[in-house]
User: Fold GPI-anchor transamidase from Geodia barretti.
Amino acid sequence: MARLLHSLAVLVAVLWSVEAAREQQSTHTNNWAVLVTVHKTHEYSSRLSCVFNWHFPLPLVYECNIILMLADDMACNARNPRPATVFNNANQHINVYGDDIEVDYRGYEVTVENFLRV
Assistant:
């Protein structure tokens, strides 16, 4: 009987936590995200593609509330064999750079000072 009551109490606590999280999500509307890459060599393009992969599915974050800082704009880099593109895998099926990517800080603008200001 004690185990049953304990299990029931845990279940109620979990359900209450989930409901509280839902209420908090629905009322909080000023979410921001800062996405940063610091690599300046073409060999780290996979890490850059990870940033772009995160750029799209951020729930509860409006596009205008995403700050994107790229130490090297790989898509427009002269070493990129396919200009204006960044792919998330070797098969190059999905261009994660896209037309709607807005870079807020690039190149030498990506500094510790600017990051802390943001």
